[in-house]
Amino acid sequence: MDTTVYVPVDGTRAVRARDLTKTYGSGEAVVHALAGVDVDFAAGEFTAIMGPSGSGKSTLMHLLAGLDTATSGQAFVGTTDVTGLNDGALTKLRRDRVGFVFQQFNLLPMFTAEQNITLPVELAGGTVDRQWFGTLVETLGLTERLTHRPAEMSGGQQQRVAIARALIAQPDVVFADEPTGNLDSRSGAEVLSFLRRSVRELGRTIIMVTHDPAAAAYADRVVLLADGRIAGDITDPTPESALAGLDALRTLEPDVSTGTTPAVPGAGA
Amino acid sequence: MATTTTAPSTDAPGSSSGGVPAAGPKGSSLPTARYTLAQMRRSAGRLTAAGIAILIGTAFVAVTLLAGNVITRATYDTIAARYADADVLVTTSGTDWRQDVEAIRGTDGVAAADAVRSAYLNLGDGSVFAYAEGIARPQDSRLMALDLTAGKWPSERGEIAVPDGLAERLHVGIGDETQVYRWVTTDPETGDGEEVTEDVRVVGITQDPYNAYASSGGAVVATPADIDEWADDPVPGGTFEIAALLEPSALSGGEPTPAVRDALDAAVVSGGKHSVKTVDEHAQQVSAERTGGEDLVFLVFVLTFAAVALLVAGLVIANTFQVLVAQRTRTLALLRCVGAGRGQLYRSVLLEAAVLGVLASLGGVLLGVLLAQTALFVAPRFDLGVPLPAAVSITPQVVLIPLAVGTVVTVVAALAPARNATRVAPLAALRPAETLSVRRGAGRVRAVLSALATIGGFALVGLGVYFGTTGEVQLGLAATVLGGAVSLVGVIVGTVFWLPKVAAFLGALVSRTGPASRLAAANTLRNPRRTSATATALLIGVTLIMTMTTGAAAARETADDTLDETFPVDIMVMPGAGEVPPSAAGTVDGVDGVTDVAEVYAADAELPGGEYLYLQGADLEDLRATVHDEHALDNLAPGTILLTQDDMENLGVAAGDTLEVTGTGSAVPLTVAETSNMGLSDVVTLTDLRKVDPEATFAAVWAALDPAADPATLLADVQDAMSDQGVFVTGPAAQRAQFEQVINVMLGIVVGLLAVAVVIAVIGVANTLSLSVIERRRESATLRAIGLSKSQLRGMLAVEGMLIAGVGAVLGIALGLLYGWTGALTALSVMGDVTLAVPWLDLGVVLVVAVVAGLIASVAPARSALQASPVEALAAE
Lengths: 269, 877
Fold this sequence. Notes:
Subcellular location (chain B): Cell membrane
Distance between the termini of chain B: 14 Å
Keywords (chain B): Cell membrane, Membrane, Transmembrane, Transmembrane helix
Mean pLDDT of chain B: 82
Family (chain B): Belongs to the ABC-4 integral membrane protein family.
Mean pLDDT of chain A: 84
Order of helices and strands of chain A: EEEHEEHEHHHEHEHEEH
Strand content of chain A: 15-25%
Shape of chain A: globular
Distance between the termini of chain A: 26 Å
Low-confidence stretches of chain B: 1-28, 433-439
Pfam families (chain B): FtsX (PF02687)
Number of domains of chain A: 1
Radius of gyration of chain A: 18 Å
Number of helices of chain A: 8
Main location (chain B): membrane
Number of strands of chain B: 22
Radius of gyration of chain B: 37 Å
Oligomer: heterodimer
Shape of chain B: flat
Number of strands of chain A: 10
CATH superfamily of chain A: P-loop containing nucleotide triphosphate hydrolases
CATH architecture of chain A: 3-Layer(aba) Sandwich
Strand content of chain B: 15-25%
Strand order of the largest sheet of chain B: 3-4-9-6-8-7
Largest interface: A-B, 36 and 30 residues
Structural class of chain A: alpha/beta
CATH class of chain A: Alpha Beta
């Protein structure tokens, strides 16, 4: 198992974390959700962040995406340090350079699929690139669904709309938080293969948080997290290797977490 | 932070602690109560806004009742003030009252006593006059309500003390002479008599600190002997009042002892009916006679508006509970799963409403008392001329009525939401939150009822307009008001069917302005029922306000037209206390802005049928120059007399007929010519008038004004120029100004009272937005995550608020115009042709106020929405 935690910076890194730390509480009660994480995510790659509950994987994603403020350290999207941005700049970052896919889909119920997909571009006051829109819709198999409202679609279809929404502004990176958590296994597999196609065919960068080894296996690379630290890195994972990596963390847990609290409150997904 | 989705762990104790019983739906109500209170604590913020709506409504009721009390108290005090420190009033109908006064003075326990006598006087010196009440100076100064500020009290006949205000008006000071004029009836049979003038000397200046004589314009004090002479003795059977001040020993707890009462009763020796009352008892009795139920009319009038405010508050409450029940669907379903009965849930919601109602109403009463007390505290700084009590008197009604009304309104408003709560299926607990659908729209019964009430109501309004235009104003008004009320109810009940369509239209308009507006428009439409209910609350107030302003505008316009027909010229100088002097024409012509004047002469004339005419005549050219109604003079020529159609009918003549008019000489034949202007009826040329009566007197000056000048200012200028002539200067401008003032004051009061309903409705808008924000927390977070900026989120809610308020305002304005016009047609048609005007300014103000209010209503919800961090969108259930 390759446990390298430091990857040298070059132009192909879409997202980087440098000594990223997030603590809750203070003094005796201090809890380290993230304890100095250094990690790089390559552009054009589909990366899964895996770890047991409380490992800090959601916290890592929130910090990388500029949704939460770090206690110390830096997080970069491209060359932008998101830890130093104010709300206005963060909003702009989310509009232009970052996309999100949520576990709950989070489509707006009063809008059709098409309106949901184009919303981020409209919020930014831009015009929709119809060619890119067509490509997305076709790739994600939504051509027949564009006039439907979320209530008229299945979970898998809704999540595909959400993926299209995340990609419409051609962001530098898409963060997906347990995107298959609310789906049955068949729809889940469908969504995961769409995510993979977005990376391979459309050249996007996706970072996905999951606790499911089968889902992680769709990624090009798995970053393992335990107790707020990077605990492993698997390239070209299979369900088996991902599961093995996760299991290894679990068996290591007593040793690794000596002297610390077993679970980090507030950091679970 | 409480989110809209359920928190079973918090709710579980309520349901498990008790009772969810084998007894099933009939389980005890105690656990329900405990659950309800827990639920209320959780929803405290959401209930607060609804509570404020009720609080304002009940405060309105409380203030009204308190004001009623203050008015009653002030009336008592004004009446009682005349008797100064007197404790008891003895009323006797005997003619030998002087004997009674002596007897009462001699009664044990009486410190002082005097007859309360007054005479109505006309004072003046030939150029200035004033009416005043004359009162006799009592023996004991403790029975005198006035204070002496200068000079001395009158002690000899022919001496008077006058109030400072009156002294100023009469231009007199201490030592000055003036006259008292009075009419002495010499022959009671025919009422014939003569005017008697007596010289009097001012010896004192008084002040009226308790406004005892404010209602009669101040009292002139004279010796009892003068007053006896000046006063008309009462008709047989009339009564005298004798005010008595008692020794402290004769009082117990401020009341005369029974022994003193009996002694006073026995002291009356003149026979006839007599009574012994305390001053308070007397004041109570007199105020009841005097107001004749006027204070009741005031109460009913203001309470009508309080009822409107409470109706609106009820809508806000109903809407809030509807939303709360919808948001608690999962909790309610969970409770049903663990065995709560429908009845328990129903009672729980009603209990929640009752608790809210009681708390909010108590707050309302408190606020009402505070407001009323503040008003009493501030009022003395404005000279109102009425003695006001220093503190409000809190009677049981003031507390209990608002409390009961507020609570009942809240509970009644919660009935429908409570029924909805019982319809939640236990299965709903198991469904994912997203698919929990909001209850479907309204039923068919509602549609039919609404249509019937709307159509029937408007038919009745149409009938009322018909009656009004055909002269049956009373009947017409009754039909229009009833029809208006019924149709408004129909419209309100039916808003859910058509208001969303209007909202969709307006939404489509605003959604072009940007993505935030598009989101807002979509949000407004996603829950048509909620939007309808919120906008309807505003619609009610706006409709009523717009009805009033439209009616007032129509009344103004119609009055203008009517005034133009009544007054042929801009300014008329007519005899007042004195005749119009011949120099008046020149004086008026000299006022800047007066373009032309006509000297008008007048003479009495008789017709062959015995009718009398008051003929007015002026030079034809002068008339043409001054009369602004150009066609009204078309038919006037030498040898003609102008008459209106009405006057011709009364005299039984027609245009072209010859009328034999006899003045001081022989009969003069005049040809009847028609005029449309009432003020020009009986007008002839000056030459013809001289033929009828060579001695025709100079009667009036008519003047025309520069059209560019302000007629009201010029009228004042002319009045100033003629001020020392004792003449009466009037014109349409004066009448118009007076009329405007009456309309504006009435409109101001009514709009002010209705504004309370609008304020409550705006709170409703804020409440609905807040509840929607809570419901859409995840959605707001998602929008923030995909690039909605803070200001866009704020803008979205602002547009939502403005859209809801705007829909209510636009529809309210439309309805108000309709009601205002039909009401004006019904009520004003008797005055002439009704001019239906659109009060654009008022309309604009109402719309702007409503939209701005919607904007303000979005501020607090937006602040709460902005607390939603984008992270929340990522959080799992």
